[in-house]
Amino acid sequence: MPWKNQGGGPWGSGPKGPWGNGPQPVGPRPPDLEDLLRRGQDRLQQIMPGGYFSGIGITLIVLLIVAFWLLSGFFRVQSEELGVVLRFGKHVRTVEPGLNYHLPYPIETVLLPKALRVSTISIGMTLIDDPARRGRSIRDVPEESLMLTGDENIVDVDFTVLWRIKPNGVGDFLFNIQNPEGTVKAVAESAMREVIGRSQIQPILTGARNVTEQGVQELIQKTLDSYGAGIQISQVQMQKVDPPAQVIDAFRDVQAARANLEQLQNEAQTYANQVVPQARGRAAQIMQAAEGYREQTVAEAKGQSSRFLKVYEEYKKAPDVTRERIYLETMERVLGGSEKLIYDGGQSGQGVVPYLPLSELTAKRPPATGQQTTGGNR
Questions:
Q1: Cβ distance 228 to 176 under 8 Å?
Q2: Quaternary arrangement and interactors, per the entry (predicted)?
């Protein structure tokens, strides 16, 4: 006999099991969906006694559709976005981040570009996933990075470009260019090749990176503005500037030799800076001594000529007296240091006292080495 005819199975009627009563409901029971639908239909029938297709019912349905259509115009703009509102496909306004409203479709639509986000484009290198390292690794792209300099050298340049959409150029960004990232990358690579082609390799590798980056940024911005792209270049960063890998060892040798040359030149310049001032000082000293000697000689000559002129004036007044005085002064100057004794007393020689050379009677000391003995007539 089936259990359904026995009033609930072998343990009796009702939801029971072999150990007594069945599971008891815990907490409030969820509402029955069919019961809710039935209640909603009853309320609609009370509001629309003539049915759904009566005049009042159609009006309510139309009002609900219109309300939902009007509410569909609300939209939210995220923090990195700007809302571009199009009315029948024409750009009419731009809205800031937050909750905004536009006329529902198809009158107005909205586009939400990432206008406030700074994007980055890498040229000469690319990031690839590396499962072994659980991250990304950089891979060189030689067809983008190898460039020819103005002095016919090859240089490997990897750089990144930081760009964003101009706040007042969102419409140009959306409608004037089809592939913004590809356009920025192509223009940046072309601008870098042009600037590198006008430059020498040595300044690029040493101290002219800032000048090169500034020139590339200005050239990219000028080109994009001519396209009407609505893009602003924030910064150009040169990540790596090296010679090609095939010649980098030889290039480093050349750089080392050039560094040694500069060191030797600096040492020579230091020595020159030390020697030249000393030579100039000595030359100035000699010039000053010569100038002093000249002044002294000229002054002495002027003094002697003045003395001669004064003597001449006196000579013209009394020639005999002056002549005798000059003679006596001259003889005094000539014979003043002599050991000779001259007597001019006539031929008789009377009244002359004999001269006794006492200095010759004493023993003479031997003369010093290197000196000659000189004697005088007494």
A1: yes
A2: HflC and HflK may interact to form a multimeric complex.
State how far the Cα of 72 lies from the Cα of 119, in Å rounded to an integer.
32
Q: Considering the entire predicted model, what is its pTM?
A: 0.49
| Pairing mode of beta strands 231-242, 125-130 | unpaired
pLDDT mean over 361-366: 60
| Amino acid symbol at 181 | E
CATH architecture of 119-244: 2-Layer Sandwich (3.30)
pLDDT of residue 10: 45
Cβ burial of 36 (10 Å; 0-12, 13-18, 19+) is exposed
User: Does residue 96 have a pLDDT over 80?
Assistant: no
| Domain residue ranges of the chain, discontinuous segments joined by + | 52-111, 119-244, 246-325
Residue 247 is classified by DSSP as: T
DSSP assignment of 343-377: ----SS-TTPPPP--HHHHSPPPPPPTT-------
Q: pLDDT per residue over 329-350, tens digit each? A: 888 888 777 666 555 555 555 6
Return contacts of 197-206, CB within 8 angstroms, 24+ apart.
197/147, 197/148, 197/149, 197/150, 198/150, 199/149, 199/150, 200/149, 200/150, 200/151, 201/149, 201/151, 201/153, 201/155, 201/243, 204/149, 204/155, 204/241, 205/155, 205/241, 205/242, 205/243
Query: Which residues, 6 or more positions from 11, have their beta carbon under 8 angstroms from its beta carbon?
Result: 17, 18
Mean pLDDT of all residues in 152-158: 85
Between 115 and 41, residue with greater pLDDT: 115
Nearest-5° Cα angle at 117, 227 to 98: 110
